[in-house]
């Protein structure tokens, strides 16, 4: 019976637009056994991707209301579901595997979990990055944007910061996982920014460290100097995080670098870098120290950028000693407008994957 509930949970997660593909080895089931008890797995399968109170869940499912909210809050603390207090009311929803359960295991991850996830990563990544819309979009370094009037609010770091009121910095789960596997990153661990449009949301959070808006800006500036890519959710409204990513640990960037998934299938971007061949002195700083996706290569005495490989982050621009690099906006016919909301993203992704998740709306 216990094994069957994990198979059921795996099917539910694979029915969600994000996906959770089965493997011959069954490593995905061992991951779920590591995270959920059978009772937690069963309760997860009764939830939806839209928020509900415990009373609404009890009424819809027939589950006893007594003790239900406490069970759901405990699952939220374990990173199994999304649980948020709004005043005196708690609301709950199920999470996909990514972005969701995996990231929310930050404070429970151990060497066994890290090893299991690494074993699962290729199977998951190949399915996940085979469908659009992409999970994440690039937020270019704002100083590299020549003409701000051409960019839209959801493409600008400052716009996301200014539209939110609560900020929390967390350790990076990808870096933590790789360190447990013996591959530590040489950049700081505490680089992931969570955001919320209401004040005080993170004040009682057991995870992360609450910071001010000014400190959020300082964090992003620091990560730019360290050569980390700003990535956020590939939607126009409702972004709740800015990840600051490196080539050695970040799942999406590793998919580009190691699985050789085309960059455009992994990350949505509205810009690409361009090198002025007359100004380039061939120092290689952009290719060797700044580009996180191997999009810049030597071309005789100068360097060139692969348009198809570039994710438009702008990291290479500011450190060029001769100013040979610039960030160029893609022509309108090449731009991919992100879905407006997360639910719009779910709907489009579901359509393209050919899965029906209506039972969990």
Structure in a nutshell:
The protein is of the alpha+beta class and 361 residues long. It folds into three domains: 104 residues, Arc Repressor Mutant, subunit A (Orthogonal Bundle), CATH 1.10.10; 131 residues, no CATH class; 66 residues, Alpha-Beta Plaits (2-Layer Sandwich), CATH 3.30.70.
Question: How many β strands by DSSP?
Answer: 13
Low confidence ranges: none
Rg estimate, integer Å? 21 Å
Largest sheet: 7 strands, mixed
**Overall tally of domains:** 3
For the termini, the CA-CA separation is: 27 Å
- Sheet with the most strands: spatial strand order: 6-4-5-8-7-3-9
Helical content (DSSP H or I, runs of 4+): 25-40%
Give the ordered list of helices and strands: HHHHHEEHHEHEHEEHEEHHEEHEEEH
The pLDDT mean sits at: 95
The portion of residues forming beta strands comes to 15-25%
Q: Give the helix tally.
A: 14
Which structural class matches the secondary elements?
alpha+beta
| Gross geometry | globular
Explain this structure.
It is a single chain. The mean pLDDT is 95. This protein has three domains: 2-105, Arc Repressor Mutant, subunit A (Orthogonal Bundle), CATH 1.10.10; 136-266, no CATH class; 269-334, Alpha-Beta Plaits, CATH 3.30.70.20. It has helices spanning 2-15, 27-35, 38-44, 54-61, 68-77, 97-104, 111-128, 157-162, 173-180, 213-225, 251-257, 263-266, 285-290, 342-353; strands at residues 81-86, 89-94, 136-138, 166-171, 190-196, 209-211, 229-233, 241-245, 267-268, 271-275, 296-299, 302-305, 325-329. It has 361 residues and is an alpha+beta fold. Helix 1 (2-15) packs parallel to helix 3 and helix 2 packs across helix 7. The longest helix has 18 residues, at 111-128. The chain is globular and about 70 Å long. It is built from 14 helices and 13 strands. Strand 7 (229-233) and strand 8 form a beta hairpin. Strands 6-4-5-8-7-3-9 form a seven-stranded mixed sheet.
């Amino acid at each position: 019976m216990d094994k069957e509930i994990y198979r059921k949970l795996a099917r539910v997660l694979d029915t969600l637009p994000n996906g959770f593909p089965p493997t011959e080895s069954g490593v995905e089931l061992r991951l779920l056994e590591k995270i959920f008890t059978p009772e937690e797995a069963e309760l997860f399968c009764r939830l939806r991707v839209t928020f509900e109170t415990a009373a609404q869940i009890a009424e819809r499912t027939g589950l006893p209301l007594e003790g239900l909210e406490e069970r759901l809050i405990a699952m939220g603390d374990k990173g199994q579901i999304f649980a948020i207090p709004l005043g005196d009311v708690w609301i709950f929803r199920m999470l996909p595997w990514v972005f969701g359960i995996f990231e929310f295991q930050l404070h429970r991850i151990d060497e066994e979990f890290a090893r299991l996830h690494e074993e699962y990563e290729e199977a998951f990544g190949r399915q996940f990055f085979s469908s659009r819309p992409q999970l994440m979009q690039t937020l270019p370094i704002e100083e590299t944007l020549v003409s701000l009037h051409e960019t839209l609010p959801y493409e600008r770091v400052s716009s996301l910061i200014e539209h939110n009121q609560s900020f929390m910095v967390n350790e990076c789960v990808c870096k933590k996982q790789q360190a447990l596997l013996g591959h530590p990153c040489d950049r700081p661990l505490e680089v992931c920014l969570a955001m919320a449009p209401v004040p005080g949301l993170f004040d009682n959070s057991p995870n992360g460290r609450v910071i001010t808006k000014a400190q959020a800006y300082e964090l992003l500036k620091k990560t730019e100097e360290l050569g980390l890519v700003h990535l956020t959710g590939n939607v126009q409204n409702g972004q709740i995080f800015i990840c600051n990513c490196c080539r050695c640990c970040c799942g999406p960037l590793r998919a580009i670098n190691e699985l050789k998934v085309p960059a455009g299938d992994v990350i949505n971007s509205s810009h690409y870098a361009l090198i002025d061949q007359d100004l380039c002195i061939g120092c290689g700083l952009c290719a060797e120290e700044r580009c996180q996706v191997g999009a810049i290569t030597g071309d005789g005495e100068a360097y060139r950028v692969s348009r198809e490989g570039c994710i438009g982050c702008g990291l290479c621009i500011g450190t060029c000693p001769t100013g040979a690099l610039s960030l160029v906006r893609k022509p309108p016919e090449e731009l991919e407008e992100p879905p407006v909301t997360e639910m719009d993203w779910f709907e489009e992704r579901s359509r393209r994957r050919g899965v029906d998740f209506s039972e969990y709306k």
